[in-house]
């Protein structure tokens, strides 16, 4: 069986830059599996990947369904959150499809050809790269949306119209798919990884800059909003959205940060013993990436009473339907 199918979530990244896999090709190992450098490679059971992938997939489907169902959630910010949930779904779907494919093949239920493996590998790569690029882009977009809400409250609805939001969403997805395709074509070039890491850094700097300005001047601007006969609740709602985004970005950094650090170390010190030791934890970084897709829906529900209410209705309806 082609080794690239054993590299959960980032087949071509690990094929080129990840730690070598055990000769037996099995993921059902432990700390005892050794890579080519003699450093113990931490292995994760396929069943854990599958379980986390299925849970996060169901959660994000519920989030998308809730936003579509509830008209009170039909606003630019929730459109962007919906797209962020779709980005997380790409990780979940790719993980579930790859893991099930591997399990069926290893148990002799499914027979595949080299061509099928190559096509599946390419599809999964596109989904993963699209997920990370679109996630970062929509986090930046939500940050900009909250910034406009707080500092240009009186002009917000004329600036961030539904047409503008749709145009941004289409542009982000087109850019994500295009960059993913280029990643597939030029995956052996270090410049591709350098571009991905640079984009990650720029997105964090951009969002952090907006945050700094928002939280330093938010209270002053909130007073101006109230002075112009806007309700105290409107100002509080805008800040609540900014806090929600802060939590989302923090979780994203914690979950994706180790993976991007892995890429940086691959480019800067691929032969350093300490770097090689870090590389041996690659599968744990992939688990963290899946956990990001699993945690995000919980943050949406916790921070939005309206969304939480709609999610409860959907879960109850689904439960009653199955009874």
UniProtKB/TrEMBL annotation:
Residues 59-300 form the G-protein coupled receptors family 1 profile domain. The lineage of its organism: Eukaryota, Metazoa, Chordata, Craniata, Vertebrata. GO terms for biological process: regulation of gene expression. It is found in: Cell membrane. Receptor for MSH (alpha, beta and gamma) and ACTH. The activity of this receptor is mediated by G proteins which activate adenylate cyclase. InterPro entries: GPCR_Rhodpsn, GPCR_Rhodpsn_7TM, Melcrt_ACTH_rcpt, MSH_rcpt. This is Melanocyte-stimulating hormone receptor. It is a multi-pass membrane protein. It comes from the Eukaryota. PANTHER family: G-PROTEIN COUPLED RECEPTOR. Keywords: Cell membrane, G-protein coupled receptor, Glycoprotein, Membrane, Receptor, Transducer, Transmembrane, Transmembrane helix. The chain crosses the membrane at residues 48-68, 77-103, 123-144, 165-185, 191-220, 241-266, 278-302.
């Amino acid at each position: 069986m082609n080794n690239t199918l054993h590299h959960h979530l980032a087949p071509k990244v690990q094929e080129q830059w990840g730690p070598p896999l055990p000769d037996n090709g099995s993921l059902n190992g432990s700390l005892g599996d050794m890579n080519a450098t003699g450093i113990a490679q931490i292995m994760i059971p396929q069943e854990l990947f599958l379980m986390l992938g299925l849970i996060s997939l169901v959660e994000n489907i519920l989030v998308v369904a809730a936003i579509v169902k509830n008209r009170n959630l039909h606003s630019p910010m929730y459109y962007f959150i919906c797209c962020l949930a779709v980005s997380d779904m790409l990780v979940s779907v790719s993980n579930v499809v790859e893991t099930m494919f591997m399990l069926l093949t290893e148990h002799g239920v499914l027979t595949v050809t080299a061509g099928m493996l190559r096509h599946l590998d390419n599809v999964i790569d596109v989904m993963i790269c699209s997920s990370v690029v679109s996630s970062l882009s929509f986090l930046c977009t939500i940050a900009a949306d909250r910034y406009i809400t707080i500092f240009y409250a009186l002009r917000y609805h004329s600036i961030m119209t539904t047409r503008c939001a749709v145009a941004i969403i289409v542009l982000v997805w087109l850019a994500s798919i295009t960059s993913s395709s280029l990643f597939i074509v030029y995956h052996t070039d270090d410049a591709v990884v350098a571009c991905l890491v640079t984009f990650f850094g720029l997105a964090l700097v951009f969002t952090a800059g907006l945050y700094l300005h928002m939280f330093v001047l938010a209270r002053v601007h909130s007073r101006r909003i109230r002075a112009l006969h806007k309700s105290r609740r409107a100002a509080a709602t805008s800040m609540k959205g900014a806090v929600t985004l802060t939590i989302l970005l923090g979780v994203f950094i914690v979950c994706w940060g180790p993976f991007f650090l892995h890429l940086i170390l691959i480019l800067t010190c691929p032969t350093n013993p300490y770097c090689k030791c870090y590389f041996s934890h690659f599968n744990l970084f992939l688990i963290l990436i899946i956990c990001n897709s699993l945690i995000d829906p919980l943050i949406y529900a916790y921070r939005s009473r309206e969304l939480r209410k709609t999610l409860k209705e959907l879960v109850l309806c689904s439960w009653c339907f199955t009874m």
